[in-house]
Design a protein that fits this description.
The structure is a homodimer of 429-residue chains.
Chain A: E1 14-27, E2 30-37, E3 40-47, H1 53-58, E4 67-76, E5 84-95, H2 109-114, H3 116-119, H4 123-145, E6 149-150, E7 156-157, E8 169-171, E9 177-180, H5 185-195, E10 197-205, E11 218-227, H6 231-252, H7 254-259, H8 264-268, E12 276-278, H9 279-288, H10 301-308, E13 315-318, E14 341-346, E15 351-358, H11 363-372, H12 381-385, E16 394-400, H13 401-409
Parallel strand pairs in A: 3-5, 6-10, 12-13
Antiparallel strand pairs in A: 1-2, 1-4, 2-3, 4-5, 7-9, 8-9, 10-11, 11-16, 13-14, 14-15, 15-16
Helix pairs in contact in A: 4-6, 4-13
């Protein structure tokens, strides 16, 4: 089957395209049908007297988004968006579409979200999800090339690493409640003892009543866990990972970035090393900007945006107070009130895209942390086992896919960075 | 950092390995430490008088699965499993492991499952999950190379494509119940109108009270959906897909298949074309084997095994009765009691690994099917829209990852083909 993206190999030949009518216009004796298949867009031109009469009879019958089979001869046409055009020789409807709901006029977000199943077809949404798909491919490539083994961690879990208040729960037969995992990290930690370097990649759930442009109830996360890595090794890996993804997107997704009118000069700067500041320094930056945050408090979205404004590249914020971070993070050797961690904040106000840390490898310290955080020893017996039998220094991180994609695409809200977003007031379609 | 899998590039050099003590033995004046890192196994040999005394003092202190840092000089050794050995020059414990629970004696499955977090380290489990990880990488490659766009379909859904009885449910804020998706197919169908060829790859949930060796409550599925493909195109794609995965595993996972003692001659036969029989013919095969199944009934696990015994390759069973298949399947043009579908049954009794079909593209027929199957028109308004605006012939399929991996690895139960299996009586660890 011929695909529009292959047009350059068929100049002068007649091809058949199976796709949809994306747009049409007429200008005197000439008709223009813009056709879309999965791979791209092409304009088919019909001149009165040269093209079959059918092409003209069809014009009014074919509503936008009708499915059609079009034949035509491929021509080079420098003025056309893709560089090629079709001299139309035949057009045949597969299914006529009448009154397609999404029109050229401005629609509100609620309307578009309600029609997400159709909105996906629009040029911009298509470009975003093509970039997402490419990013996902390169995520898998990166970890494969760097010797990581993929470990799919469970979604249904009996306990919760970061508390159960923000978790979706379901009945699990006779075993009581199960929770939808917010992270697979603890399970990845078990797997490093078998495979050294491991990662996961799957959906994650957070039943949080937040309605910001950076939150989804269901989002995709990539987590990596690395045996014998300290916090610095972990950070170096993240720099390499983020740069690899960005540079690959720049090389391969130029057309889609153009559709999104993304300023790629900002992305080109994303090469190692990234700036690194401490939590203390971040608090100072915010104080200088007259933010009211006090030492010991966690950053909100506005804080992250303000921090990112001081840097052109993503910035690591290191060594947070232990009280606002998870129980499994390793104590800072010189300042026990801190932990050896780093969050990566994207530029341009896209917020935290990675959270990572070195993990506490000492059995007694971990157990004490768990008690301090109110976690039950029984529930985490298996996790404590990992510190009993050949414990090693290790680190890991987790990246939120939608935030990353939103940043790359330069779109203001994560809801467009996932095919069917799940938000506080939306679970349809 | 040096990795055991790189040994061949370091012959004659001193290297440092960070890993775990997999096994040890002593024979007169010689000690053998078998060390494992994430990438492989290697034996370090210490000869009394040549190796440091420390190596001998350590021997009794180091329990199996202790984490250690070992230095040694790499030597070629044709008798060693990987072809290389280490002349030990230093050994240093990182963390001493005492009384590691999994020993050389036979453990029951319940015990091993209860210790899944540790069992992962064993040689066979490690091999299985390495193969799984490789298969996952090649799945992503296959779809990328064939022009498919990845579309992550939602897990939390307001309705259920195949009935709600076997679904896990959770409260979704003020929007009522949400169900964990059993399939993302309907959502993929929406995406073909934007991208032509699409696939998803993620966890799937089935709250079914079954306890067979082929069932998990949480398993991973790959689904593909293809615009303008009929059932035959769909089958050809599946043949290509399965053969691609199998041949890539044979080329790249030889060591792991050897650990699993897999008879690879059976896998080598998996090249297109695969045999194709109809449902009617499958019923005949079973009748000849004195199975009591009657026309119109669905196959159980034993039926599938019996069918597979007649073939060396995976076999497609086509055109099932409509009453035992899903509402979205396209009617057979000559026999309206059948649908245009095919299930792919793996050889050697590994059961159904793929279910696929052409989809009903006609609005009126689809609506009638939905009513016949007792589905509400309101719940599926968005899905019906896809037949309103430029409907096209299309097909798709779904493959269960764990069944595929179990087949490739030659293991009897799917529970070992996933890192942390979720079964009727198991959600821990």
């Amino acid at each position: 089957m011929f695909h529009i993206s292959d047009a350059k190999n068929f100049v002068g030949e007649e091809v058949e395209i199976r796709g949809w009518l994306y747009n049409k216009r007429s200008k005197g004796k000439i008709l223009f049908y813009i056709i879309r298949d999965g791979t791209g867009y092409i304009q088919a031109v019909a001149v009165k007297g040269e093209a079959p009469d059918k092409a003209f009879e069809m014009y009014d019958q074919l509503g936008l988004e009708s499915s059609i089979i079009v034949k035509g001869i491929v021509r080079e046409e420098p003025r056309a968006p893709g560089g090629y055009e079709l001299t139309l020789t035949d057009i045949k409807p597969v299914h006529k579409s009448v009154d397609y709901p999404i029109t050229k006029k401005e629609h509100g977000t609620a309307f578009l979200m309600e029609h997400r199943h159709l909105w996906l077809r629009s040029k911009k949404q298509r470009a975003i999800l093509r970039i997402r798909s490419f990013v996902e491919k390169k995520i898998v490539d990166f970890f494969y090339e760097n010797g990581f083994v993929r470990i799919d961690t469970p979604i249904l879990t009996a306990t919760a690493a970061e508390g159960t208040t923000n978790l979706f729960a379901t009945e699990y037969f006779n075993l009581g409640k199960a929770y939808l995992a917010q992270t697979g990290q603890l399970y990845l930690e078990a797997a490093i003892f078998a495979h050294g370097l491991v990662y996961n990649f799957g959906p994650t759930f957070r039943a949080e009543k937040s309605k910001t442009r950076r939150h989804l109830m269901e989002f995709w996360m990539i987590e990596a866990e690395e045996a014998f890595y300290d916090n610095d090794d972990n950070i170096a890996l993240q720099e390499k990972f983020i740069s690899y993804l960005i540079q690959n997107v720049l090389e391969n997704c130029g057309d889609d970035l153009k559709i999104l009118e993304r300023d790629t000069s900002l992305l080109e700067k994303v090469v190692p090393p990234f700036p690194k500041i401490t939590y203390d320094e971040a608090i100072e930056i915010l104080s200088r900007k007259n933010f009211k945050i006090r030492w010991g408090e966690d950053f909100g979205g506005d804080d992250e945006t303000a921090i990112s404004e001081s840097f052109e590249k993503p910035v690591f914020v290191m060594n947070y107070p232990r009280d606002i971070k998870a129980f499994y993070m390793k104590e800072h050797s010189e300042r026990p009130e801190l932990v050896k961690c780093a969050d990566l904040i994207a530029p341009e106000g896209y917020g935290e895209i990675i959270g990572g840390s070195q993990r506490e490898e000492d059995y007694d310290k971990l157990l004490k942390n768990m008690k301090d955080f109110g976690l039950s020893e029984d529930d985490y017996g298996w996790y404590l086992d990992l510190r009993k039998y050949g414990s090693v220094p290790h680190s890991g991180f987790g990246m939120g896919l939608e935030r990353f994609v939103a940043w790359v695409c330069g779109i203001p809200h994560v809801r467009e960075a996932i095919p069917f977003p799940r938000m506080l007031y939306r679970i349809y379609p």
